[in-house]
Fold:
Amino acid sequence: MHQCIHRCGLLVEELCRQGASMFCIAPGSRSSPLAMAASLHPRARLNVCLDERSLGFWALGYGRAARSPAVVIT
Structure:
């Protein structure tokens, strides 16, 4: 599991480097390593929501308002 979180951490780092620092997370077992990596990254900001559809619309609104992409993890 640690190796998987490390690889996901590299992805999160690259996304933050490219300007996508808002991570919208809908918790689930398949996305746990990526969600964990995002939560451990110092530049990542998180928004957690249980409903995936609401989360997608929130991310869209955030991206339009902030003029910065949001990463959706489901």
Notes: The chain is about 55% helix and 15% strand. The beta strands are 22-25, 45-48, 70-73.
